[in-house]
Amino acid sequence: MRLTPGDDERLLRDAARGLLARGAGWADFAEQGWLALPVTEAFGGLGGAAPLIAVLAEEMGRARIPGWVAGAVLPAALIEAAASEAQKAEWLPALAEGRLRIAVAHDEDRTLLGVATRWDGALHGRKRAVMGAGTADLWLVTARTDAGLGVFAVTPFAVTEYDHIDGGRAADLTFAATLAVPLGGPGTDATPALLEALDRANAAACAEALGAMEGLIDATVDYTKTRVQFGQPLAKFQALRHRMAEMAVKRDEARGSALLAALSLTLSPRDRARAVSGARAKIGRLSRHVAHEAIQLHGAMGVSEEMPLGLWLRGLFAFENRWGHTDAHLARYADLMADPALREEGLLRPGSDAGMNLSTSPEDIAFRDQVRAFFTATLDPATERAERLNPSFLAHPPTGLAWLQKLPEGWAVPSWPADHGGPGWTLTQRYLFDQESERAGEPHFRGASFKMIAPVLMRYGTEAQKAHYLPRILNGQDFWAQGYSEPGSGSDLASLACKAVRDGDEYIVTGSKIWSTHAHHATKMFALVRTDDSGRKQQGITFLLIDLKAPGVSLRPIRSIDGTHEFNQTFFDGVRVPVADRVGEEGDGWEIAKYLLEFERGGAFAGGLLRALFARLWRIAEGSGLTGDPVFRTRFAEIGTDIDANDMLELGAMSAVASGGNPGAVPAAVMKIERSRIRQAITELAAHSLGPEALRWETTRPLDALPVESALAEERKVAVPAYLNARAQSIFGGSNEIQLEIIARALIG
């Protein structure tokens, strides 16, 4: 698996951006080899891989230059998939060299394969809004035949040319008993070939739409930084900053979806359709939102032809209505999600490891099978049931700590490096492990101890701290709670007031922390404390490790709206903490806290959990007879496309971690926002799928103390508490509004 662009992608992007900025035309495309890029090498092309095609399409979209995907990518893909060898030899070299302009006439309605044009030895019918048809030398037309769908080379009876909404030229074609040559010979059902070609074109169109989103965001940021209202640049107003940050979140989601579409073109037709139609459906929604926001944030200038926004919006409108409408692709994706394998599996598939890819090796498959066999043999029914009936984001600590003791060495900490006790797994293996552990229903015990304080100790801790604490985390001897938020400060960590005064070799800590998850089970807390009131607020913060069994520590339980006790307020009344338990230097706490929050927000896989909840949602809806309901299927499919995009964002961020870095503040913020929204959407739809059954409230906690029922009945029982518990997802770890400000600062300054 490789998701990071290589030299070929970077060089093509730089060259294309420079040339397109100077205004390139079709002759320039031929000279640069861009027409040859989607043509196979056997017929004089460059045989460009899908990621290269996506790079060029993205730059075309950014530069608002239409026609390359319709005039080069789709014809090359259709001829390659449907034509005879003689037809390929005649047409593909000429297309690659720019000597032959080809127009593909397919669309007739909003569906992907809706074709009324008929062939009975001659063509009868009409095709509308065919891109480039007025200047074409060859027209490829789809039509109904007795065998299915066919593709025909034809000269139209009439061509009515006009301006196209995206800024190019199009034409309506009329056929009246028009002679035509079938691609691949008469009597051939070209439906599979046509679907493959349309998927390739749609994947490139997704990248083109992504480029338009990039252009819209850049233009909006530039405008709001220079346009002054009420004595301030518009970019100073928080409401507008957050709207632009939301645009960037949607752009990043779209980037994940577009990359998934490109990398799935070499997979099975089922996987290819899932990725491409999922991307088309999601990017259609996202790009429209970004365009509308860009126009709104430009004010009256946004609806003026003086600005380029209208051309981007018109291009995106065309994107949504070409080669299957957004809604048609969402329906196709929804149909695919009826397959449990696609609902429950991750995105990696066996395949070649060449170039950018989502491939797993035979060794990876063997690893996955080993993990699956372990969970099947070891995860006992009581533990699995306790997790199934757990509405919280973390396992009940006694359940989690008991399960920890059953794991093979290193399996508790898949992301830890081997020299600290981790298993030394590759990124692909960690992804597969996450998918399998969630599929099996493993308890979510990897909380603050494993995913938050451990990475901090590895980076900032002394050798003595690492040697003492990391083994105790691994064996469950120490169980950690987080001490960041305080009453009155919430996500504003810089305003914290819990004090630590140096007294020789100790600090004396006084104050309180709130929302301390599972502190009533914890033995230790990592906490931010104020050691200096002078200077900037961030400069006086220090990071301490506090023994929760020390004199002066007390707790007040806080019960959640779902009925569970997972939060607490922790009080410190003159608690003594050795200086040896300070991480970093005095005053380093702010930088350490930011590093830790990147891991809390985006430093580990969550896609497996979301996919497991997604599969549970289907089972709950199936129990209510809703899986055939079109409203449910639409909402379910939209969530599925969100999960796929989140998977791609996670894989990209974890690639940075695998290379020795950290997730990065902005990717972590984007993932935190999206994970919380997806989980909330899943749990909300599951709860609403229960109907009147959802109104029955169960007071027993934990829920696994109730009598045993069927797995489905228990999944339905936990649905409403899980919905209520999920409201915290967009608050803890820094509220989503704080994440938007982090993104806004990186985007705008």
TrEMBL record:
UniProt keywords, alphabetically: FAD, Flavoprotein, Oxidoreductase
Family of the protein in this entry: Belongs to the acyl-CoA dehydrogenase family.
Occurrences of domain Acyl-CoA oxidase/dehydrogenase middle (ranges): 481-570
GO MF terms, alphabetically ordered: flavin adenine dinucleotide binding; oxidoreductase activity, acting on the CH-CH group of donors
Gene3D superfamilies with a match to the protein in the record: Acyl-CoA dehydrogenase/oxidase, N-terminal domain, Butyryl-CoA Dehydrogenase, subunit A, domain 2, Butyryl-CoA Dehydrogenase, subunit A, domain 3
Recorded superkingdom: Bacteria
Acyl-CoA dehydrogenase/oxidase N-terminal domain segment(s): 26-98, 362-476
This protein's record includes keyword Ribosomal protein: no
Obligatory cofactor(s): FAD
Gene Ontology CC, one term: plasma membrane
Full protein name: Acyl-CoA dehydrogenase
Signal sequence annotation: none
Ranges for domain Acyl-CoA dehydrogenase/oxidase C-terminal: 195-316, 587-747
